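Sat 14:20. Reprocessing the chain from the morning session after the first attempt stalled halfway. Input below, unchanged.
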Amino acid sequence: MEHHVVPRSEWLDARRALLSREKEFTRLRDEINAERLALPWVKVDKDYVFDTPAGKKTLAELFDDRSQLVIYHFMFGPDWEAGCPGCSFMADHFDGTLAHLNNHDVTLVTVSRAPLAKIEAYKQRMGWSFPWVSSFGSDFNFDYHVSFSREELANGPVLYNFTQTPAEQAHDELPGTSAFIRNEAGEVFHTYSSYARGGEEMLGTLMILDRAPKGRNESSTLSFIKRHDEYEDQPKAHACCAA
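Finished this time. Tokens:
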């Protein structure tokens, strides 16, 4: 994109015009957020059990004594050697949110179908501390339409992002976010899910890049992303932390 260099007064006119559009977007986002909160709920009647570092836990137990649960569906299949780079990019944003979410009665948990041992090893490699559990052997990922069997993919379109998605555009594992609430009686309800690019607003790095002069500077969605320990120029350790 070619940019003109103009006097500041002309830049201010253009910036104020954009500000008007940004305010429209902010108001629309507020309206969408209100509609999201107004969605009806679905009672979760199925018993799901997850492998956690503290042993087997049910979906209700993942709330960790809070009333709200947000689950990030992390792409990491049982036979994968490492987690998805894009999901790893998302997960890099989680640890700093935990104290704030927990104080606001929200528990954030990441769920993958990889066995717990693989999850723990990858989590250690990445240096993360957020809760991450395994749904291996459970229907959870399949019921929430983020995992698909080879048979499903071979038989045509699969249901992803609330629409029939051609198998060639799908994968055995796909990303998403789901929200749940638990009432005083211990009943669990599914309140919301989003998939594909629906989680972009959770990616603070993208929000910063959107304000940088070159934006995301990508050839396709997240084409620039690598796992944070795979970039060529790694951040240098501070002197007090250097080995």
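The two ends are 44 Å apart (CA to CA).
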